[in-house]
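Technical appendix A lists one of the benchmark inputs used to test multi-chain prediction within the project. The record comprises two sequence entries:
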Amino acid sequence: AQSVAQPEDQVNVAEGNPLTVKCTYSVSGNPYLFWYVQYPNRGLQFLLKYITGDNLVKGSYGFEAEFNKSQTSFHLKKPSALVSDSALYFCAVRDISIIFGKGTRLHILP
Amino acid sequence: NAGVTQTPKFQVLKTGQSMTLQCAQDMNHEYMSWYRQDPGMGLRLIHYSVGAGITDQGEVPNGYNVSRSTTEDFPLRLLSAAPSQTSVYFCASSYNRQGDYGYTFGSGTRLTVV
């Protein structure tokens, strides 16, 4: 079965610094990967997805994700963090349904 | 375009009471699902539906019932509430179960069972 793992429960980054939220995947066949964000007291919102093609995928709010087949990773990145980026981030993979990771809480420190 | 609407936003129940969490979508999505979110547990799938009249169990279905009489609505029923059902519940919908275009989530229902 397909799965994703988010090795960090929490990531702290100073405002203005680059941020990375890590995700690794395990799939048979070609992966179909997502990132979602959850702001406090809100549902999950779609950020971006990778199907095929360019390994760097651009998404909402200035986020991007880098697909690395050799490392089976799909890390979420942003060049310059904002305090408003503080949220819970979920990596996900498509199987017969979408399978979500356990989430990584991102704290941007002012 | 309202997307996925969940009601109520907050609810407190006594142990043994029953209630229905409402979910409605206006995107003509065939696939709808219910998740619960608990600290450190991520999202766990309760029940899902691939179309009107068709429902199936997810990872944690015990204590919950669903029905899908229309494409738009997918209510979740708690038969006899227990403290272990204290959680935040999310409804999600999509064109298909595989989520080719991703899932659209509602804003959640925070349920406390005392």
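Chain A touches chain B at residues 9, 32, 34, 36, 41-46, 49, 90, 94-98, 100-103 (CB under 8 Å). Chain A has a mean pLDDT of 94. Comparable benchmark entries are summarised in Table A2.
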